[in-house]
From TrEMBL:
Gene3D superfamilies, A to Z: Medium-chain alcohol dehydrogenases, catalytic domain, NAD(P)-binding Rossmann-like Domain
Name the UniProt record assigns to this protein: Zinc-type alcohol dehydrogenase-like protein C16A3.02c
Listed InterPro entries: ADH-like_N (IPR013154), Chloroplast_QOR (IPR052733), ER (IPR020843), GroES-like_sf (IPR011032), NAD(P)-bd_dom_sf (IPR036291)
Origin superkingdom: Eukaryota
Residues covered by the Enoyl reductase (ER) domain: 15-334
Xref: SUPFAM superfamilies: GroES-like (SSF50129), NAD(P)-binding Rossmann-fold domains (SSF51735)
Sample GO molecular function, one term: oxidoreductase activity
Length: 338
């Protein structure tokens, strides 16, 4: 086997990830060590915001190690393994636990003991694009919904993005009533994937619309999942439409200083000083083997329909530019190899 591979690499430097990416046709193969579960030939990778957030904070990139290859989610085939649970040629879904020096935007990646890796039935060969998205976004969606009994009512803000589309369908598969929040252009999509009701945030004040839903249905929400964190009032007034023991789940964390300050206020300011009256929970992790396994099962069971925007191998920078617009519906994937 060759000791080199092709890989997109971020060597460091000022500016954005996409402006600094370099395609290396002779990058060294990721090493097999005692902590490595398997080396995987990548077929498809999914792009996630954490890919660029981790690299565009200079100390983050240096801690990971330069040059680094971005990407945490992929579907591929095992080319070498240190575990009897896998065999060469197995189709596997992989989700790195954290951004890694040996990410998935390459011909080969590795899964270590801290990463999630699950074997996928060969029937999955017809759903490679969807299976590539079974990591960060889907795991986050499943974590955000965990612990709810069947029949619970859930509000998902930012329902048309990668995590939101997964969340709506995973919630319906679990037997929840789902109210999705999106823009006008995505209302029909939300109805198609099973949302029981849709709130178009472009048509007026979001908090007012949520309260109107509760008044009309006579039922408060058991959980609120906020994938965008664009409306602080949605949290501060949650006591008006979220049950007393309900959780308000914030997904992810933008890196802007202003956001960090607002997040601190949400989590630390007590209600008697103007803070929120419902429990805020911020999800920074994105699930482990169990969530990855369940995500692949949902795909193979036909319960997940993902709008997908696909880019060719040489178009990775363009893929990240599209992701950063915040206007992407569903997921963006990179076709790495066949």
């Amino acid at each position: 086997m060759s000791t080199t591979m092709f890989a997109w690499q971020f060597p460091g430097g000022k500016g954005t990830l996409e402006d600094n990416l370099v395609f290396n046709s002779a990058a060294p193969l990721p090493p097999m060590t005692k902590d490595t579960v398997a080396r995987i030939k990548v077929l498809r990778m999914a792009l996630n915001p954490i890919d660029y957030k981790a690299t565009e904070v200079s100390i983050g990139a240096r801690l990971i190690g330069l040059p680094l290859t971005p990407g945490m989610d992929c579907i591929g085939r095992v080319s070498e393994t240190n575990t009897p649970n896998l065999a060469v040629g197995d189709l596997v879904a992989v989700k790195h636990a954290t951004p890694s020096k040996y990410g998935v935007a390459a011909e080969y990646t590795i899964a270590t003991k801290k990463d999630a890796i699950v074997k996928v039935d060969e029937a999955g060969i017809s759903a490679l694009d969807e299976l590539a998205c079974s990591g960060v976004a889907s795991g986050t969606a499943l974590v955000s919904l965990a612990g709810l009994p069947q029949g619970s009512k859930v509000l998902i803000n930012g329902a048309s993005g990668g995590t939101g589309v997964w969340g709506v369908q995973a919630a319906k598969a679990a037997g929840y009533e789902v109210v999705a929040v999106c823009s006008s252009r995505n209302v029909d999509l939300m109805k198609t994937i099973g949302a029981d009701d849709v709130i178009d945030y472009t048509k007026g004040d979001l908090v007012t619309a949520v309260k109107e839903n509760v008044a009309r249905t006579g039922r408060q929400f058991d959980r609120i999942v906020d994938n965008v964190s664009s409306s602080p009032q949605l949290y501060y007034r949650a006591h008006e439409y979220l049950v007393p023991k309900g959780k308000f789940m914030f997904v992810g964390a933008p890196m802007e200083a202003s956001f960090i300050w607002k997040a601190l206020m949400i989590h630390l300011l007590p209600a008697f000083l103007g803070g929120g009256r419902r429990k805020p929970v911020r999800i920074l992790g994105n699930g482990e083997d169990a969530e990855l396994k369940r995500s692949t099962e949902l795909v193979l069971e036909g319960k997940i329909t993902l709008p997908i925007q696909k880019f060719a191998l040489h178009q990775l920078p363009e893929g990240y530019r599209a992701l950063k617009t915040g206007r992407t519906v569903g997921k963006i994937i990179l076709h790495v190899s066949d």
